[in-house]
Write a structure and sequence with these properties.
The protein has about 120 residues and is an alpha/beta fold. It is built from five helices and four strands, in the order βααβαβαβα. The protein has a four-stranded parallel β-sheet with strand order 2-1-3-4, with helices on both faces. The longest helix is centred in the last third of the chain and has 23 residues. The radius of gyration is 18 Å and the shape is elongated. The mean pLDDT is about 80.
Amino acid sequence: MAQCIIYARVSTRQQAWGHGIVRQIECCQHQAKKDGVWVRAVYVDVCSGAGQMPNRDRAISEAKETGYPIYVESMDRWTRNASDESLDDEAIELVFCGELQAEFAANIAAAFVAYKDQEAMDGR
């Protein structure tokens, strides 16, 4: 079975205790499952996206060694630096999974509208 690496990052310790990291990992796990890919490793950093990210560097090294893609929620979780050299590195494949949140939100909104329409038809 194909494999991938997940990378998640939050900027502060407060965010680390919140749902930020969990949400990012779950988003990537969902995409991996959808893609039929097994998660080999998960790397997490708690630091600014403009500074040093040691676990991102580890994820990049593993991706280069194995050829596995790195799943990350969105570009701003990967870097805040527009000139980030990792974006030009052809030895790694980045898969951005954040679109799933928009798809999920749209599905929830559609379900709510359908419920309200049914409620109106039932005369509630």
